[in-house]
Structure formats: C-alpha cells, structure tokens
Amino acid sequence: MKKSLLIISLMLLVIGASAQEQNKKNTGFRFSAQVGATFEVKANYDHTYDSHFDDNSDKNMFSVNYRLGASYFLIPNVSVGVGVGLDRFRNPKTKALPLYIDAKYYLFNARNTPFIFGTAGILGTVNDYYQKGNMFDAGVGYKLFAGDKVCLTATAGYRHYTLKRVYLFEYDSKGIFFGLGIHF
Q1: Residue 20 resides in a domain
Q2: Looking at residue 54, what DSSP letter applies?
Q3: pTM across the whole model
Q4: How many other C-beta atoms are found inside a 10 Å radius of the C-beta of residue 53?
Q5: Are 38 and 62 in contact (CB under 8 A)?
Q6: Residues in a beta bridge with 48
Q7: How far apart are CA 147 and CA 76, in angstroms?
Q8: CATH number reported for the structural domain that contains residue 75 in this entry
C-alpha cells in the first residue's frame, strides 16, 4: 500500500512538473520580427487643396511592412506588447514608421495554437510631405513552435491606415494584410 501511494505521489509530481513546464512556454517576455504585405482594397486621396476631391481608389495600392516587437504574457492565453516598424507604400510612394501596442489571445493553452489579435498605433513619417497618422489592425494567426524557445507565426487580417499630406490631401487606406514572423 505504501509503495502504491509513493508511486502515485511520484506520478502526480511528474505530471504537475510537466504541466508547469508546458505553461512556461507562454510566460514572460517574447521578442518578435515580422515581414508582411498589405493589399489595399480601398484607398482614397482626399485632395483638399483648391476644394477639389479626387478619389484614386483604383490605383492598385500596396505596401510592404516590417515589424519588431516585444510582448509579455499576462496569463498563458493573453499577451500584450509594443512594437515599431517600417512600412513602404508603393502608391503613394512614401514610407511610414508605425509605433504600436498590440494584444493577442491564444485560443488554446498549447505550444501550437491559433490566436486572434488587435493592434493600434500612430504612423510617424520619414519625410516632410506627410504628417503623422493612425493605424489599426485586427486579425487571426497561428503560432507553430520550431524549437524549444523559437516559434513561427503566420497572420492575416484587416488593416486601416490614415496619413495626411501637408496642405494637400489625406491618404486613407483599408486593406487585407498577410505576414510571417518569428518569436523568440
């Protein structure tokens, strides 16, 4: 009887230690790098100069996005973070520097799991032609561990940008984005 009780106690201890080890996968700080592309489905130039409106929504807008971020797991299913990036727009041909906060909810407390996320921030500009603007993202993703502490992510979602050109017009972009990242 004592031997059975000792074996059961050891098994519970091992199971408890394993559960704690699994939870450590979604704890603490994580750093990330991501590259993506945004395909604008609706983009407008609102020319306010000389009271003229020009809708250029058919100009095939596109941007490439680079992101670096840091996040912290509040609980195994929820992380919050901050990040910075570089967005290169093809039309209008300009660049923006996003500074953002994000939140992710992992659907399962597991190593490989889908997640939903939201991002909000400001777009700084790299030239004198544009003033800073706003950004908002919302989407879904999947986290896949490639090693003990490194995981790959794939994301897709909706993105909304607003940039105002000094004295001339406002650039308002709504699009679908796709991204690939690495977290460590």
Answers
A1: no
A2: B
A3: 0.76
A4: 10
A5: yes
A6: none
A7: 18
A8: 2.40.160.20
In the structure encoding, which two tokens stand for residue 136, read together? 């908002």
Q: How far lies 41's CA from each of 58, 62, 65, 143, 169, in Å?
A: 9, 9, 16, 27, 19
Instruction: Check residue 14 and give its pLDDT.
Output: 41
Could you report the per-residue pLDDT of 51-83, keeping only the tens digit for each?
334 444 445 678 899 999 999 999 999 999 999
Residue 10 lies in a domain: no
Examine residue 147 and state whether it is found in any structural domain, yes or no: yes
Which residues are CB-neighbours of 163 under 8 A, at least 6 positions away?
A: 94, 96, 123, 125, 130, 131, 132, 133, 170, 171
pLDDT tens-digit map of 112-147: 999 999 999 999 877 777 778 899 999 999 999 988
Rounded to the nearest 5 degrees, what angle is found at the Cα of 60, between the Cα atoms of 173 and 50?
A: 60
